[in-house]
Write a structure and sequence with these properties.
By secondary structure, the protein is an alpha+beta fold. The protein has one domain. It is about 35% helix and about 20% strand. It has 15 helices and 18 strands. A hairpin with a 5-residue loop joins strand 15 and strand 16. The radius of gyration is 21 Å and the shape is globular.
Length: about 425
């Protein structure tokens, strides 16, 4: 362990600072919408969305995560890799409309040996919320703290440029006029406040934006419509990754016809976010056969934990060794239907065998000690999320929680900024 790794661990263990300036956060949220009640509404309805504290990580872990992102995306661009992955994907994933996909989320656990990739998401939420949160931190962690890979005052412009680049990759120089921020019943989604922030962000840059239930869209006259008006682009937050639900037939038809730009899209999910890809990414021999170079293989070997498909052939061995595994549905999201092996019951195991699951060797999450509002000390788990576009990390954020997976229900938990302390950090907090 390097000295700076030890500094980060010491700060996570011993620093009890509450770094969030709630007045600054309230002003930031209110300023985004010109609505003084917005911040109070968010805090009342989602009390554990934001943690009061920050998470610390060694600077070299940030570099290692960026190297991991480049390695994964270099491998995912290989034709042989794509052929293998897409062979198991539905037909809609074979369509390549041009855009890359916005807001990939690389979720990692920090171990003593370095970052371990837990999963990749292709519609990762929270980037804009974490941008606002990072601006509302007290300067109690000294000037050595660096909150991310892109300057905070440049992030919102970068996000808009990212959407414009997605548009350009499919539509060239035509004007982007109207975007739908789409989900299923968006007003009921936990991250609905972020949809509102995105709507205002687009508007500030001259792009009309609506928050839309994908089920309310219409496919007619060769275009996708919402509320009687044509849509140019859909910022896709659905967890119906292949638009298979009957209520998403209009979106599916418009996307398949190339009549609307959708980002992120089904192909991106198939190439990056299907959990079965972790099996291939953790298999050096298979990747070498796909044409992966040795530099990428070395990075992936260091960052990927062994992952296997669960099937009848290995069921008995996996059950016997279940304490070392974490079980995930291939198309899962948000920690739903995931199981730590040591907590498995026979009934749940039968459900796993009947579904499409992978088993991933357990890599423990980080630990952050903090002081709760009642004065009690608490130990929370955390993971790190790197928000990525075009192989570049835009922002780091952490999620603090207790339990089996991130849940935004833990007192003291929620999104937290990530700082990378340098020399002289001990004594801060």
């Amino acid at each position: 362990m390097t000295r700076l790794s030890g500094i980060a661990e010491a700060l996570n263990r011993n620093c009890r600072c509450k770094t969030v300036d709630h007045e600054a956060l309230a002003r930031a949220l209110a300023g985004e919408l010109h609505d003084p009640d917005f911040s109070q509404w968010v805090r009342t309805t989602r009390p554990h969305l934001f943690s009061d504290t920050a998470v610390f990580a060694a600077p070299r872990w940030a570099e290692a995560i960026q190297a991991l992102v480049r390695a994964v995306e270099a491998v995912a661009a290989l034709p042989a890799y794509q052929d293998r992955v897409l062979a198991a994907a539905p037909a809609i994933a074979h369509f390549n409309p041009g855009p890359r996909g916005v807001f990939f989320g690389y979720d990692v656990h920090l171990t003593s040996a370095g970052p371990r990739l837990i999963e990749i998401n292709t519609n990762a939420g929270g980037a804009l919320l974490n941008t606002v949160l990072a601006r509302a931190q007290r300067a109690c962690c000294r000037p050595w703290a660096v909150a991310g890979a892109v300057a905070l005052d440049a992030l919102e412009d970068e996000f808009v440029m990212m959407f414009r680049e997605e548009w350009r990759r499919q539509r060239g120089e035509a004007p982007l006029l109207r975007v739908a921020i789409a989900d299923a019943a968006p007003e009921t989604q936990f991250l609905y406040p972020e949809f509102i922030l995105f709507q205002r962000l687009f508007a500030r840059h001259g792009i009309e934006a609506v928050i839309a239930d994908a089920a309310s869209m219409e496919w007619r006259d060769g275009a996708l419509h919402h509320a009687g008006r044509r849509l140019d682009m859909v910022y896709n937050r659905l967890t119906d990754f292949y638009f298979a639900a009957p209520e998403h037939a209009a979106l599916r038809a418009a996307y398949s016809a190339g009549a609307v730009v959708v980002t992120p899209h089904p192909r991106a999910h198939a190439l990056y976010a299907d959990k079965r890809n972790l099996v291939l990414l953790s298999d050096p021999a298979a990747l070498r056969a796909c044409g992966a170079d040795e530099a990428a293989l070395a990075v992936l070997r260091a960052a990927l934990t062994p992952t296997v498909r669960v099937d009848a052939g290995n069921a008995a061995q996996l059950w016997a060794e279940r304490r070392r595994w974490f079980f995930k549905p291939a198309s899962g999201y948000g920690g739903k239907a995931v199981y730590r092996g040591e907590k498995l019951t026979r009934r749940v195991w039968r459900d796993i065998l009947a579904g499409a699951y992978v088993a991933q060797e357990y890599a423990p999450p980080g630990e952050r000690m903090l002081k709760l509002d009642d004065g009690a000390d608490a130990s929370l788990k955390f993971d790190l999320r790197a928000y990525v576009y075009a192989s570049r990390v835009q922002l780091f954020a952490a999620r603090l929680y207790q339990g089996q997976a991130t849940n935004f229900r833990t007192p003291g938990g929620g999104f937290a900024p990530v700082y990378f302390p340098g020399p002289g950090a001990i004594g801060a907090g």
